[in-house]
């Protein structure tokens, strides 16, 4: 139901205003709750006793600071909210400052878009408008998004500013989280898996997480068995941070990198090339590279305390280009790598990095000989275990070092 919340305006004492005077400046903010249910109706009032049926109707009623609670169940009946020349936007988020969240942590809302055809246009299950900021999604799942004969579709197309917490995109023919144009935001404890483009046209355009906008922070996220890359920041205009994220089992037929960090393909790089941060991350059992600088025309990233295992085209590949105006590939010279661990496969390739920038990694520590016995487990299947009650990454022993290992202290565990 609706409730009122008072905000105390804090005024420094040195300007001589007493607490009583300060209270006279207090602002009273009105925040409302609305509810959506699989058994609701959009003609309802939106209360818990009389919930709406759709996100679109709840957004129409809500304003900045309000919360839309989504009751558990599977939502399958949708109408197209808006369209342009290329896309049908099923849910078009056009208002700022609204939180969309599960009503109960014990009953996750599942949005199944398998009835929405992609025959005529691409599908964006949720689109966050470029003018929108401070939108939050918490504890929902998205599945069934179709691509048809289109080049790609998206579960979330983020062109504004959004925070995702414990949101899961799985078993789609579409990108999971797609930050594009000037999109920014945060992904915390999110998963993207089994998102596979079914055609030659789409298989190489279906990533778990795409950071192609003005900068995104990813923390404690997982990406696995998506048909293109786990995390991709091709053509990014802003700096992205990847912190305690896992990418594994990218082997469904596309580019198949764990972390593709940088690159502009045939596009024009921005005036200031962004430098990304990749720390405490894990990339394992991918058909291409584990951690990849991807032809960046400058430094792609600072890479610290990461672990790479059994990535078929190299665990760390630091391939760069000479400059933004000269698209000639060179072994990387500008990357910074410290305290990283690589095992099984080529540890590092395409690297001509000065020694000061690439120290204390498993492949360049003297007298080190790593074997299976250095690890508690090499079972990559542990990584897809269920998360903890608070959305924490699962407890695993995969790639955890034994206490007697010579490389203890390196990598993400």
Give a brief rundown of this model.
The chain has 2 helices and 36 strands.
Features:
metal-binding; 3% helix; eleven-stranded parallel sheet; 36 strands; Pectate Lyase C-like; 2 helices; lyase; 413 residues; eleven-stranded mixed sheet; Pel9A-like_beta_helix; disordered N terminus
Describe the structure.
- Belongs to the polysaccharide lyase 9 family.
- It is found in: Secreted.
- Keywords: Calcium, Lyase, Metal-binding, Secreted, Signal.
- Residues 30-340 form the Pel9A-like right handed beta-helix region domain.
- One of its GO terms (molecular function) is metal ion binding.
- The chain is mainly β.
- The protein folds into two domains: 1-30, no CATH class; 62-72 and 92-384, Pectate Lyase C-like, CATH 2.160.20.10.
- Helix content is 3%, strand content 32%.
- The chain is built from two helices and 36 strands.
- Strands 3-4-8-11-14-17-20-23-26-29-34 form an eleven-stranded parallel β-sheet, with helices on one face. The protein has an eleven-stranded mixed β-sheet with strand order 6-7-10-13-16-19-22-25-28-31-36.
- Strand 32 and strand 33 form a beta hairpin.
- The chain is globular, with a radius of gyration of 23 Å.
- The two termini are 45 Å apart.
Topology of helices and strands:
Layout: E1 3-7, H1 19-23, E2 27-31, E3 33-36, H2 55-61, E4 67-70, E5 73-75, E6 82-83, E7 87-93, E8 99-102, E9 109-112, E10 122-128, E11 135-138, E12 141-143, E13 154-158, E14 161-165, E15 168-170, E16 175-179, E17 184-188, E18 191-193, E19 209-211, E20 215-219, E21 222-224, E22 231-232, E23 241-243, E24 246-248, E25 259-260, E26 276-279, E27 282-284, E28 291-292, E29 301-304, E30 307-309, E31 316-317, E32 320-323, E33 326-330, E34 336-338, E35 341-343, E36 348-349
Parallel strand pairs: 3-4, 4-8, 5-9, 7-10, 8-11, 9-12, 10-13, 11-14, 12-15, 13-16, 14-17, 15-18, 16-19, 17-20, 18-21, 19-22, 20-23, 21-24, 22-25, 23-26, 24-27, 25-28, 26-29, 27-30, 28-31, 29-34, 30-35, 31-36
Antiparallel strand pairs: 1-2, 6-7, 32-33
């Amino acid at each position: 139901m609706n409730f009122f919340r008072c905000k105390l305006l804090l005024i420094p004492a040195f300007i001589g205003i007493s607490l009583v005077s300060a209270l006279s400046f207090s602002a009273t903010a009105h925040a409302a709750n609305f509810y959506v249910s699989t058994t609701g109706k959009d003609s309802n009032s939106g209360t818990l006793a009389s919930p709406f049926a759709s996100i679109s109707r709840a957004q129409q009623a809500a304003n900045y600071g309000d919360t839309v609670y989504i009751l558990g169940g599977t939502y399958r009946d949708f109408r197209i909210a808006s369209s342009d020349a290329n896309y049908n936007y099923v849910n078009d988020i056009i208002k700022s400052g609204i939180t969309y969240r599960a009503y109960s942590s014990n009953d996750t809302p599942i949005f199944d878009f398998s009835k929405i055809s992609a025959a005529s246009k691409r599908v964006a299950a949720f689109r966050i408008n470029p003018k929108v900021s401070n939108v939050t999604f918490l504890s929902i799942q998205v599945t069934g998004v179709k691509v048809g004969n289109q080049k790609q579709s998206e579960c979330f197309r983020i062109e504004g500013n959004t925070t995702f917490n414990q949101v899961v995109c799985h078993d789609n023919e579409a990108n999971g989280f797609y930050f594009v144009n000037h999109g920014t935001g945060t992904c915390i404890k999110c998963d993207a898996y089994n998102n596979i483009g079914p055609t030659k046209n789409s298989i190489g355009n279906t990533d778990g997480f795409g950071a192609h906008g003005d900068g995104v922070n990813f923390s404690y996220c997982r990406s696995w068995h998506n048909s293109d890359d786990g995390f991709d920041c091709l053509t990014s205009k802003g700096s992205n941070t990847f912190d305690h994220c896992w990418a594994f089992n990218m082997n469904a037929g596309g580019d198949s990198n764990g972390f593709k960090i940088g690159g502009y393909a045939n596009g024009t790089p921005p005036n200031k090339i962004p430098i990304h941060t990749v720390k405490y991350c894990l990339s394992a059992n991918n058909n291409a590279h584990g951690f990849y600088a991807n032809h960046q025309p400058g430094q792609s990233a600072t890479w610290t305390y990461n672990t790479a295992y059994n990535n078929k085209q190299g665990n760390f590949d630091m391939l760069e280009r000479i400059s933004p105006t000269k698209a000639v590939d060179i072994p990387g010279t500008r990357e910074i790598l410290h305290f990283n661990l690589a095992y099984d496969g080529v540890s590092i390739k395409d690297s001509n990095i000065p020694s000061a920038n690439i120290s204390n990694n498993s492949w360049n520590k003297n007298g080190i000989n790593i074997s299976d016995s250095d690890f508690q487990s090499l079972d990559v299947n542990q990584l897809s275990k269920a998360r903890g009650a608070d959305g924490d990454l699962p407890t695993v022993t995969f790639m955890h070092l034994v206490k007697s290992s010579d490389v203890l202290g390196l990598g993400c565990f």
